[in-house]
């Protein structure tokens, strides 16, 4: 069981650089800090626990003299550069027309709009908590803009350059004032070592997968969490999909002010949905998201995923270190702050309408046992016919095999063994099984189970009980 | 006129063969006067076409609106080779048309003495009187009557005059099929006059009704929801079930795609399925000879289906999916093939399935060998008159067959030939099971014994 839990967070097809396949015990403890039954792995190998602890401390302890090397913008650029160097940052869906999430660098370069005045950016970016938006590599022509007799040919060459240039932020053209800080100005970025944190990687991969699942009907594919999300378009679509409401926002904006305006509306909507006040400090803001602050973006995504019961299992206790740099009296000072992106959750099913089972769980744990027992009796009465028996209500249903067989027994048909995985190995196999059993239930005229297949596979007891109870009420009188 | 009847009349063998190669064409259909293809070919004496039609499974004794069978026409027009071909294929030599005439009446009247002799040798009675009280001998001229009379005496015929009885109301005849049956694939649901519900099964509701004067059975598919995608798949899939060209295949006549109702229409056959004939009170005695005949029919039907370029997907052979025609011909029912969107993940009759078909996807197994297993179970069923694993629920039976080696038990009481055949067809190794083509000669031999 514990092994399965380790692998569960990877959902869908593309596996994130999963730490699970190469089971490092350090991680196992990180993943299950509160689970007593996993601790035996670390008990066996105490030296590994030491390793874990030391690595944790290591991530916290700062490296003061090196800070100049981490010129904040550069760090951001390195991270951003991964994506933007290998393409234009736009996402083309090979299957058909798709909305192209344009990379700001390219868009700006292509549109060749007047480069934003430095002053205006600062003006908008009043808040000190976030970095300024990293400036895009300007087209070569920026200094030329004042030349009065700009020729047609120059324009052509310029356009060609704009098209051909990879839009790399590492371009030498980045004016030095971009990473100059004004006095008392602050910038924050993830401490580079935190990027290597497997939990963070996992969290990002899972969130991207979730977004892509939700936005599949819109044919939007997100590849990079910062580059694709900062302009608010994906958040806009995401919220529309999740709430089934339309937001009164412009579909596509390419100017920065347009993007900010859009972000403001979208974030207001998000805060409203999340039950947060319009004002007051949030973990995200227009500026922080538009400046591609990954911490803010992740906070918002996690909050949305939790609120909408995303069928994903996010790594728990994902904590990253954030470096905040401030210029004071011409000196760069920095401090490192730990940001908790995810905490621990006791419920996978998260929010839904409260029903008898919630009450049962909260108020009558003794009765819960009775309910469990009678459900087990009911299920075993059927399964015994084919010489099977369940032992453990919590775990025996998560792979969906018994649910499929149960439906066949209750409804009077044989479920061909190629229709499901009799011995499921992966999360996907189990998910397939549970989904198939749900299909069979709906074919039998039962309502679509409130629980999601993912909840069952993740061994959420409450969801499992709900499903079984539905079967029980329908079939308690059949033999 | 460029239709099949015309080609049969003028003897256009090539066109007829091409036409027959299309499975959607029903070779038992009749024209406006109920003349079937065989009627026309026999009337015009095209021996090649007659032979082709007969080998492809055309009915030998269909009647036109005047109650003539092809033998009447061949005898009346003096085609001796056609007459003997029909006789060899069990044409009813004493069949009476609406005037009370047998083929012998016509042979005598038109003075085809060789044909008349052939008919008498094949058992034609010389003493059947027609509506006007004339026996065939009354129609003869010259010495012919005398010779036929003595032949009849020699063969020991009862020479007492058999008076004409109007039997047309008895409905004993098999008319050539209404050609309109195969002409429409998309049928307007409003044209169906459904009058009584026959049964309710997991795949849908069965209704009896009438459509364009034909008795039909309509199956209204049970669907959780009728999405546009399902309608599209339905339209794509049902034409494959319209196989009119083999006598042992019962085609889907047509379908109504009328969301939320999808309806599959077949001919109504009063005997129902082989399963009901065997296990329920049907009034028909299935003795060993009849069982072998059914088995041969099923094998021929399956051999034909297996000979098609594209196999019919999700066609599961079992006694429930074999229908019995009014002349006790067994026909594999195409209406019981499952659509891709139907009963997904549910097998209601795993008792007839081969172990590998219960475990693996159809694309991963030899479907033909798997069908052979199902045939063996059906054969067992006819030999023992028992329902296989009647005491087990489908889930129990399926699990036991698939994983625990549960098999039907061939009791010692049944014919050794049949039990041997069952064992051969139920070989555990799918690769070692015979094909239907291989067992047809065996069954034919067993039928003649």
TrEMBL record, chain A:
Annotated Gene3D superfamilies = Calponin-like domain
Q: Which GO terms describe its molecular function?
A: actin binding
Which GO BP terms sit in this record?
actin cytoskeleton organization; cell projection assembly; establishment or maintenance of cell polarity regulating cell shape; substrate adhesion-dependent cell spreading
Tell me where it resides: Cytoplasm, Cytoskeleton; Cytoplasm, Myofibril, Sarcomere
Q: Which SUPFAM superfamilies match?
A: Calponin-homology domain, CH-domain
Q: Which InterPro entries match?
A: CH_dom, CH_dom_sf, Parvin
- SMART domains according to UniProt: CH
Swiss-Prot/TrEMBL keywords = Actin-binding, Cell adhesion, Cytoplasm, Cytoskeleton, Repeat
Chief subcellular location equals cytoplasm
Q: Where is the composition biased (Polar residues)?
A: 1-10, 115-142
Compositionally biased spans, kind Basic and acidic residues: 47-56
The residue ranges of the Calponin-homology (CH) domain are 201-309, 369-476
Q: Where is this region: Disordered?
A: 1-66, 115-150
A Pfam entry, by short name: CH
Annotated Gene Ontology cellular component terms: actin cytoskeleton; focal adhesion; sarcomere
Concerning PANTHER family, the annotation shows: GH23568P, PARVIN
Belongs to which family? Answer: Belongs to the parvin family.
State the name under which the record lists this protein: Calponin-homology (CH) domain-containing protein
The record lists the organism as: Petrolisthes manimaculis
UniProtKB/TrEMBL annotation, chain B:
Entry-linked SMART domains: ANK
Q: Write out the ranges of the repeats annotated as ANK.
A: 33-65, 66-98, 99-131
The Protein kinase domain, residue ranges: 192-443
Keywords tagged on the record: ANK repeat
Q: Which Pfam families match?
A: Ank_2, PK_Tyr_Ser-Thr
- Presence of keyword Translocase: no
Q: Which GO terms describe its molecular function?
A: ATP binding; protein serine/threonine kinase activity
Which superkingdom? Eukaryota
- Coiled-coil ranges from the UniProt annotation: none
Q: Name one GO cellular component term.
A: stress fiber
For this protein, the record's InterPro entries field holds: Ankyrin_rpt, Ankyrin_rpt-contain_sf, Kinase-like_dom_sf, Prot_kinase_dom, Ser-Thr/Tyr_kinase_cat_dom, Ser/Thr_Kinases-Pseudokinases
Q: Does the keyword Ribosomal protein apply?
A: no
Which terms does the UniProt entry file under GO BP?
Answer: cell-matrix adhesion; integrin-mediated signaling pathway; substrate adhesion-dependent cell spreading
Protein family according to the UniProt entry: Belongs to the protein kinase superfamily. TKL Ser/Thr protein kinase family.
Which named protein is this?
Protein kinase domain-containing protein
